[in-house]
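Hi C.,

You asked whether I'd gotten around to modeling the 174-residue construct. I have! Everything is below, sequence then structure, no commentary in between.
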Amino acid sequence: MSFYDLIFKDAAGDTINFGELRGKTCLLVNIATECGHARQLHDLQTLYLLYKQRGFVVLAFPSNDFGNQEPRGNEQIHSYCSSEYLVTFPVLEKSHVVGPEANEVFRFLKEHSRFPAIFGKPMWNFQKYLIDCNGNLTDVFLPTTSPRSGRFRRALERCLDTATVEKDEILRVV
């Protein structure tokens, strides 16, 4: 199974086919609105607006798996994210991201992690998984890593630059 075979529902219950993300750089983040890291939603939104024209997508996966920090339902989560942090990127359906009930997306991330024992599952809310334009998991960032950090931004820029080079090469061939 590839990243592009995955399907998931957003907070409104609409299906998102990950195949439609082919060629884009994706950041998957497990979120919780009552977590101390929730302010990262603002930084993620800023990056989304800055880079979406280059094919960057953020996918937020609400979960109550850590510290019961996501007590809200899907509609309330989406409303909170959009009103408090002006989030316009997709907020997906609330689900489990760890344990035997982990959703299919986070099981995929665990299976494709270079270090599954350490980075294969989120350690807490706001763990970040960077997927390149070919659907490969390239980097995992701990919850404490700010989306504004140099390390994070360099990894994101590398993925976006690779996607741009590949698109340019395809255009030259045609």
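If it helps when you're writing up: Strands lie at 7-9, 15-17, 25-31, 56-62, 128-131, 137-141.

Thanks,
B.
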